[in-house]
Amino acid sequence: MRKLLLLNTVTAALLLSFAIAQAQTAAGPDSLRLTVSADRPDHIYSLGDSARFSVDIRPALSRDQEMTLEYSLSLDGADRIAQGRLATRGGRIDLAGSLDRPGFLRLDLTLAAGPDTLQTACGCGFDPYAIRPTGVLPVDFDRFWRNGRAELLRLPMDPRLEEVEQNEIPGAKRYKLSLVVNDGTRISGWLTVPPGKGPFPAAIYAPYAGVYDPDTRTIMAREGLVTLALEIHGLELGREAEYYRYQENGVLDAYRGFGADDPYRFYYRRAVLGVIRAIDYLCSRPDVDSSRIGITGGSQGGGLSLITAGLDSRIKAVVANVPVMCDHTGRFHGRPSGWPGIFQYAARERIERTCGYYDAALIAGFINVPARIGVGFIDPFCPPTTVFAAYNNVKGPKRIDCHTLVGHGASEGWYEDSIRWLARQLSAPVKQP
Questions:
Q1: Residue 284 burial (C-beta neighbours within 10 Å; 0-12, 13-18, 19+)
Q2: Which 8-state DSSP code applies to residue 211?
Q3: Closest Cα to residue 319, out of 420, 200, 407?
Q4: What is the C-alpha to C-alpha distance for residues 393 and 298, in angstroms, rounded to an integer?
Q5: Could you tell me the pLDDT band of residue 13, with boundaries at 50, 70 and 90?
Q6: Strands 33-38 and 44-45: what pairing?
Q7: Which pTM was predicted?
């Protein structure tokens, strides 16, 4: 049963079978503020609990006109539960509710006051550690990826290295690198080798979505890791920004949907195999300890990190923040699906043939090494329901860091701390059976 009880324009209570909680603040140019506070600092509830939070609207002292607050409640951005509009002159609006199945509920708020408009969002989880993926692996999943690995074996890597000057780390060396991948094209990346003899542990940085020259990830090399920061499209490194914008607005426009109706032609098949080829290359270097290779990335890079760690046992530790490509089929179960929303690119029956091979939440079930995952509770691109579906499926030692006040990003200092964590996981040689 879902009910809305309005007490007055200043105070309201929301009574329904679902709930939300989150703390977030939006401020306008005249000190107009829209604040949401939760009654639990971790924003985690058990099924049947009542989640309570308060919306506080603070107008400027000179503002006395009526304002309009629009709210929308949804199951983590998927099925909408309630929406409405309240007239107010400022004050506090109290809401409460509960959820009867594992998941998240999202509140979106829009405050209109004259020419000013503020927006914010809230989210909380009910029994999130019980969330599971909605999809299933294809029956030929193993064969599909074995065939991909075989394609790599049939082509030489043909590594092309060009040393470039760097002055961030005394004694370190940096190179532009490119490698042949399964279709005969190339991927590229910045390779940084720390000072010293080695062999060193190594880590791949998988890139977030877009078309750009990847950062060299100096912070990773400072932790003693041979670092390979990948550019999955195979573009030249070190070019001017206009070059990458031209590619993104041209041949790579909407690349995330290329071939989505065919698992063998899907763009991310080449990307995943490109990351695996990067592991091949690192293992071939005498200055790399092949028993100590990790992978990290956020957003698109987070999804690629989980998929690669699930497919390739040479990965010994993984960090993935707000990973994409999790739980593609959630939308058919009243839940959100992770970016890129693959089902928008072709008919459902054709996409269903593809999505199981590339679902990071499902493939996470093959991860048996230390994993650290970050999740944003108000992330509209990789909703927390999808990220928890992946995290809960990981079989190895794991931890999840909840960015309760963050959307598609991370809490302050999290990235630096996660890199130090990754370096610690790779600090000692792994005993081989």
A1: exposed
A2: S
A3: 420
A4: 19
A5: very low
A6: unpaired
A7: 0.91
